[in-house]
Amino acid sequence: MVVPSDDGKTPRDYTGPGAGAPPLGGELDKLAANISLGRSASPTAAPWPENRHRQAGLERARQETGHMMERDYRTALIAGAPSQLARELALWLGGAGMQVHVAARAPEELEPYLVRARDSGARLLPVELDTTRVEEARERVLALDEACGGLDLVVAAGTYEETSARDFPWERARQLIETNVTGTVGLLSAVLPRMLERGHGHLVGISSLAAYRGLAGRSAYSGSKAFVSNFMESLRADLRDTGVRVTCIYPGHLRNHHAVQGRSEPFTLDEKDAAARMGRAILQGKARYAMPWQAATFMRMLQVLPGSLFDTIARRMH
């Protein structure tokens, strides 16, 4: 593949991170050799028109957020579980003018999203990263932060797993906790000192409406998301006046996920729509954002119910 050099004029062969994406510069090319940043879906993709796309993306983001964007974000990392929601969020942020690094345990899983990104002009780069392998993941995140000149936004996604206490699946619960709890803390705490040194940055944790109260059939999931919520709240209190912003997102039921499970839930959200809502909340600098509002209101009501009444309702919700 031939792409422009850093001066934008002289063609040169490109074999760096993402075979279908233009180079990010020598430092990231070196990083690719060390940490396997992954491969793009299309080796024939045209060079990404960085300045033109970035300006168009920024203008679109300003319009979608009601011109309430708190900061100018350039680079982002989305890591955690390989969920459709996280990858739709990556596409939305890429369309808002960011260079988005998307983590996956197997980068080839990202190929459909890389094709969509290429077709829309968004800049997505795959990163081979497993947040449950905490020490290795932390090293790779720090290397990526240095190579791209500093990550402005880091999003810790998570995973969903039902766990009934009547037949508790310990191994699945352990994997869920390693992803949602250990992975989130390991990822965000790795990049936090760098953000504090720079005096700016944005950490985002993906919690869930299930964090508001424990629900039947979701013991490990609700517990892990309650941890994420409290962790992000404490981070926000600790980081006040440092320039590092903290956001916690509380999504409700997602349509495609429950379609796979063969269930129908009220107030479900399409993943693409949910990602757009999340993206707007992040760029607006919201401390917390729960969606959809109907389900969020219901779960907040459950928080203030007497224990005996809540127990009766919770048993009927599974």
User: Could you give a short account of the major beta sheet?
Assistant: 7 strands, parallel
In the CATH hierarchy, the architecture is 3-Layer(aba) Sandwich
CATH class: Alpha Beta
- For the record, the count of structural domains works out to 1
Strand order across the largest sheet: 5-4-3-6-7-8-9
- Give the CATH topology: Rossmann fold
The oligomeric state of the chains shown is single chain
Instruction: Determine the number of helices (DSSP H or I, runs of at least 4 residues).
Output: 11
The termini sit apart by 53 Å
Radius of gyration, in angstroms, nearest whole number: 20 Å
Mean pLDDT: 80
Order of helices and strands: EEHHEHEHEHEHEHEHHEHH
Instruction: Report helical residue fraction.
Output: 40-55%
Residue share in β-strands: 5-15%
What is the number of beta strands? 9
Structural class: alpha/beta
Low-confidence segments: 1-49, 258-262
Quick summary:
It holds the Pfam family adh_short. Belongs to the short-chain dehydrogenases/reductases (SDR) family. This protein is α/β, with parallel strands linked by helices and 318 residues long.
Describe the protein's architecture and organization.
The protein is α/β, with parallel strands linked by helices. The protein has a single domain, classed as 3-Layer(aba) Sandwich (Rossmann fold), CATH 3.40.50.720. Helices cover 47% and strands 14% of the residues. It has helices at residues 26-35, 50-64, 84-95, 111-120, 134-147, 170-198, 219-238, 255-260, 271-283, 293-303, 307-315, and strands at 2-4, 11-13, 75-79, 99-104, 123-128, 153-156, 201-206, 244-251, 288-291. One of its GO terms (molecular function) is oxidoreductase activity. One of its GO terms (cellular component) is membrane. InterPro entries: NAD(P)-bd_dom_sf, Sc_DH/Rdtase_CS, SDR_fam.
